[in-house]
Design brief:
The structure is a single chain. 43% of the residues lie in helices and 8% in strands. It is α/β, with parallel strands linked by helices. The strands form 4 sheets. A 5-stranded parallel sheet has the order 10-9-8-11-12, with helices on both faces. The radius of gyration is 28 Å and the shape is globular. Bound molecules: S-adenosylmethionine and 7-methylguanosine. S-adenosylmethionine binds next to helix 34, strand 9 and helix 36. This is Trimethylguanosine synthase.
């Protein structure tokens, strides 16, 4: 299989000049050697580099490149110790040692299947080679065409564009940036977002894109350059006595910084203040000008917006936005180990002047981005454009240079906002430092800015910028003289609205990390804690201690709320008593789906039309609105992988078989009417039918269902292709039609004879997710036999088999077993799977296997509407019973659960002294 071939290169790519790898490629290289640790990528790179004896500078550049381009398969975002409530603890015993705690790893994985989605939209399938998974079914020439097409769709509404390969790459890049804790600006997707949202012509978009890219590149460089140069300078000057004779020590230190993301925070507050005091004004003003250019050129005439009653508020907003944007960047690079010498008054000897010619040449050879800058002492932006800012220049001169360079920088508010929200929570991933390392204050405060003489108003506004974000709100209350304490009601708030607990830089030590509020951490991670019964005798947790916290842990957490409002219209379809008449109110989504289905179902149109639901028409504007919303709706599906210390135990040489693996899959935002299905398998939906579909389906169907219009010269090509008939049962069921439109995401080889029943459509694990789970299982367990206790139509079983496992596939429903067998044949793995029709609850005690995979029914649509999913009561049959019976087979259990599963319950499954990994999986996660 091609996908297998791509993996396990085991070595980082030397060529880091490439803009980005696809996420799937990137994630594969990092994890095999070191397992799913957040530091995995840097660690593997660093040890590789050490082995290869790469020079210091190159090593550094490679480290940075690695951080930018490599994503381990599973990123560890947090590690927690949960202490069980018991009497011994009160008697003073060490509960950790006496096995009265559970170690919980929280990780994240990112999975892509956009190409499969594209195939579904096209309505055809091109089998190009044997055993293709569908990833490769879009031919290269077509891909090229499509890339080109992105920019030739000026006449189409922005929503009509199918996400293209370039998007995928750029999104992956952005994702990678985020997951590595890098500012979003460094990624590329935001640029595309601009394009998609604007609906303007390619020319303009392309121009804007290029311009922004250029500016972003420059922006990216500025702080990086400062940090990098000054770090080097620090080494050169401070270490000249102690380290100069021993380059290995320098290397070691650099490595350690790379590996650990160690924080150099001494005096950071002060340095930031100086930095901002020095450059903030210029940055603010220039960015303000550029922003206004986009908005209204007349506004430019307002020379002092901070004094203008009309503009004041905007200015404050702008100030906050910029302040935090730079603050985040500054923080980020500081956390990477870079330091800034901002002591303008006492400039150090310029390292650049001391550097040998060879060193300079070497730098240039490494990468343009890391080129030597003559004076990097403290002229941050100078380095961006090779500004020769000599340290002996006075401040004014320097500022002039800076301002000249600032001219080239644009700060897009959206991007800044993105960055802010994504990097709001920053922490040291190796020492598990706390959320922020600086006490935030309201930047736009009279005490902070000369330009704004009023306190922060944003605190009470719902501005999407600056202080409206949690940290900024906190800042405001502090800066405005209010309390900086945590909001005690934080639990009631969605994670992203919770105030961030602030710490001062001096608080950043490992000891205090344990004080990180686990509730907050859960909140940031989007994990839900409920009050449900814990597994077996576990009474609850008396204490939770965060022992490790990855930066950027908040990444995408806002998407994990299953109950969040999805900005779509007419989510429900109202059917009349006579569905044939088609007089019902429906969503535009349905219209699109219907149009799409008509297109792909032309041969059957006559016969199936009567059964197909008829949608009322809606205006284009509505359509566009939907599409805009859909762009914002993340295509996310998250799961949790609970690998109880599989890596560390592996490192310790523990028996892999002894490990207990629990994958708690966190499902997407879907209302799957399983109960309805059971009661009324072929319902034509004469009652109110929920049309909510998983995010990963929803986004696509709502925003991007017009791929057919693309290019005339491609039309013939398509016409020649045989379009599969829409099965009548699909045509008759609007809900299923949506799933059908995305059938290749469920099974990439759908057209080769895959069959599903209604429940199967709703509950099969999408192929890429199933593949990911299978990969993790393969990596974690050497053992052979896996029991898929609730195999359904075979989504997981097939992938386990493809991953080389022998599978015992069980389902209580004979139809499912038939379908699963059929589908396994399509994938050529039926021989590896033993199908058993029966009740797992009854069969369990007589089964033998090395691993058990649990993907039971989640009990109908409630799982999406409940704040917290009760693992025991909402799963059918009883989720604890299922687990208990599985333990009779093995302790290597992978549990696939919805994302709102009660984490305390999940953790309790590990039992006293146990370890558990909860992995959240994101499918096509994008802004
Ligand atoms: C969510 S589906 C599994 C989907 C599967 N992972 C896939 O990818 O196709 C759950 C399945 O569990 C089956 N099931 C329900 N109760 C069962 C039981 N007691 N024993 C075995 N299977 C059961 C249902 O028939 C259903 O097919
Ligand atoms: C109702 N449902 C959906 N999915 C999963 O969520 C996605 C979106 O609906 C489905 O594609 C499937 O992966 C389910 N998985 C299990 N194990 N059990 C379920 O009842 C179930």
């Amino acid at each position: 299989m091609r996908r297998r071939e791509k993996k396990n290169t085991g070595r980082p790519r030397e060529d880091f000049s490439e803009p980005s790898t696809s996420l799937s490629e990137a994630r594969l290289s990092g994890c095999n050697a070191h397992g799913p640790t957040s530091a995995g990528s840097a660690l593997s790179w660093s040890s590789f580099l050490r082995r290869e004896g790469v020079s210091r500078q190159k090593k550094k550049a490679l480290c940075e490149a690695a951080m930018l381009r490599e994503v381990p398969q599973s990123l560890l975002v947090a590690k927690m110790l949960l202490f069980l409530r018991n009497d011994e603890e009160e008697e003073g015993k060490d509960s950790e040692k006496s096995g009265h705690s559970i170690l919980c790893f929280c990780s994240r994985a990112f999975v892509e299947d956009r190409k499969l989605y594209k195939l579904g939209l096209k309505g055809f399938y091109v089998k190009e080679e044997e055993n293709s998974t569908g990833e490769d079914q879009v031919s290269e020439d077509e891909e090229k065409e499509q890339k080109h097409d992105i920019f030739n769709t000026a006449d189409l509404p922005s929503d009509s564009r199918v996400p293209e390969v370039e998007d995928i790459e750029l999104d992956s890049e952005t994702e990678l940036m985020k997951s590595m804790g890098l500012p979003l600006q460094f990624g590329g997707a935001a640029v595309h977002k601009t394009i998609m949202r604007s609906g303007n012509t390619y020319k303009r978009n392309n121009k804007v894109m290029k311009k922004k890219k250029k500016k972003k590149n420059m922006l990216q460089k500025d702080i990086l350059e400062i940090m990098k140069d000054t770090l080097e300078e620090d080494h050169e000057t401070e270490d000249s006595h102690s380290l100069a004779d021993d380059p290995s020590l320098i290397n070691k230190e650099v490595d350690e910084q790379c590996e650990n993301g160690e924080v150099k925070l001494d005096g950071m507050n002060e340095k930031w203040e100086i930095y901002w005091g020095e450059y903030g004004e210029g940055l603010l003003w220039k960015s303000w000008q550029e922003k206004q250019e986009d908005v209204d050129s007349e506004l430019l005439s307002i020379s002092e917006p901070w004094d203008n009653p009309e503009m004041k508020e905007k200015w404050q907003q702008h100030y906050n936005e910029l302040y935090w944007y730079y603050w985040e960047q500054f923080q980020y690079w500081a956390n990477q180990g870079w330091t800034v010498d901002v002591a303008h008054s006492s400039p150090k000897i310029n390292k650049g002047n001391l550097e040998t010619k060879e060193e300079k040449t070497q730098n240039i050879e490494i990468d343009d981005e890391y080129r030597e800058v003559p004076d990097s002492n403290f002229c941050p932006l100078a380095s961006v454009a090779s500004c020769e800012c000599n340290p002996i220049k006075n401040d004014n001169q320097c500022n002039i240079d800076i301002l000249t360079e600032i001219n080239k920088i644009n700060l897009n508010s959206e991007e800044a906002e993105d960055s802010k929200s994504e990097t709001m929570v920053d922490s040291n991933d190796s020492q598990g430092l706390y959320l922020t390392n600086m006490e935030r204050h309201c930047p736009c405060d009279s005490s902070q800015s000369k330009k704004s003489d009023e306190g922060p108003k944003e605190e009470n506004t719902t501005s999407e910028y600056g202080c409206s974000n949690p940290a900024a709100s906190q800042v405001h209350s502090t800066g405005g003289g209010g309390s900086s304490h945590n909001n005690s009601d934080g639990d009631e708030q969605p994670p992203e609205q919770k105030p961030v607990r602030l710490k001062r830089s001096h608080e950043l030590d490992a000891e205090e990390d344990a004080q990180a509020d686990p509730d907050e951490v859960f909140g940031f991670l989007g994990l839900k804690r409920g009050t449900g019964q814990r597994y077996r005798e576990i009474p609850g947790f008396s204490e939770r201690r965060v022992t490790h916290l990855n930066r950027n842990m908040k990444f995408k957490s806002k998407l994990l709320d299953m109950r969040r409002t999805i900005k779509t219209k007419n989510k429900h379809i109202f059917f009349t008593e006579e569905p044939e008449v088609g007089v019902f109110k429906t969503s535009e989504t349905l219209n699109k789906v219907e149009r799409f289905l008509k297109q792909v179902n032309e041969p059957q149109e006559e016969t199936s039309q009567d059964k197909t639901v008829h949608a009322s028409t809606s205006s284009d504007s509505e359509e566009q609105e939907n599409s805009v919303c859909s762009q914002n709706n993340p295509d996310v599906q998250n799961y949790e992988l609970v690998l109880p210390d599989s890596n560390s135990s592996r490192h310790k040489g523990n028996s892999i078989e002894e490990e207990k693996l629990i994958i708690a899959a966190r499902d997407c935002n879907s209302e799957v009417p399983v109960e309805e299905v059971e009661k009324e398998p072929c319902s034509l939906g004469r009652e109110l039918l929920p049309l909510d579909i998983p995010d990963y389906l929803q986004m696509k169907t709502e925003g991007e269902v017009k791929p057919m219009k693309k290019k005339k010269n491609r039309k013939n090509k398509k016409e020649n292709r045989s379009v599969p008939s829409l099965p009548p049962e699909i045509a008759a069921d609007p809900e299923l039609a949506k799933y059908w439109a995305q059938r290749y995401r469920l099974f990439s080889r759908f057209d080769e004879g895959i069959h599903l029943d209604r429940e199967g459509w709703f509950s099969v694990t999408p192929e890429k997710i199933a593949e990911h789970i299978a990969d993790r299982v393969r990596q974690s367990f050497k053992s052979d036999i896996i029991v898929d206790a609730f195999c359904g139509v075979g989504g997981n079983s097939i992938q386990f088999a493809l991953a080389g496992k022998r599978v015992i596939a069980i389902d209580i429903d004979p139809v499912k077993i038939r379908l699963a067998h059929n589908n396994a044949e399509v994938y050529g793995v039926a021989d590896q799977i033993e199908f058993i029709c029966g009740d797992f609850m009854k069969l369990a005690s007589s089964l033998k296997g090395d691993i058990v995979f649990l993907s039971p029914p989640w009990g109908g649509p409630e799982y999406t509407t409940a704040e917290v999913f009760d693992v025991q009561t909402m799963i059918c049959p009883d989720g604890f019973e299922v687990f208990k019976l599985s333990q009779k087979i093995t302790n290597n259990i992978v549990y696939f659960l919805p994302r709102n599963a009660d984490i305390d319950q999940v953790t309790s499954l590990a039992g006293p002294g146990g370890k558990v990994e909860i992995e959240q999986n994101f499918l096509n996660n994008r802004e």
